[in-house]
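Listing S7. Sequence submitted for prediction.
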Amino acid sequence: MVNSVFVDDKKMRDILTYISGMKHAKKIRMMFLCSHNGMRSINFCYLQVKDVYTPDWKVKDVICLDYDKNKGKNKCSYYLNGQIRKEFGEYLKYLQSKNANLNSESYLFTSQKQNKPYNRVSISRLFSSIYRKFNIQGASHLGRHLFVSKLVNSGVNICIVQKLANHKNISTTQHYFNYDPQMLANAVENVRV
């Protein structure tokens, strides 16, 4: 089952606290938050300043990516909530303090050794090691699974979730839906004659 792993808010806070003690914590935290905002690692490992920030250094409401930064040959869009916009604002300050030559073409997440975008395999290994510390089986894609599952299971219209997840087919989105008896009871409670 796609969403057999559940990470509650407390455990998520614990994970973020753990990340804050790691080397390169700000970079890892931001990548982790991108994953938990529904992005695939291919989306966020190649993010450039121009994708996230306007020319006057404001955080965009929507990250629009071309096919070269997405799975398949499709463009995609990721909507940012207030929390992640704030996090990207803080991350910009960090980037500016580390890179005096920061410009629209600069990558947001670069490796220390080669100053090139992070390798997706490295991101997957990094995320796996973080999750393992909390007895969670997962890697870089788990955040995306949790994002989609949370939307679906909280009652957001499946067509909206499909758009937010950038799924080509709604059947892919449907794999994230798990129901329990309480959800069924709540659903019929809302239907009145």
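Caption to Listing S7: primary sequence and predicted structure tokens for the chain studied. The first strand starts at residue 62 and ends at 65. The mean pLDDT is 87.
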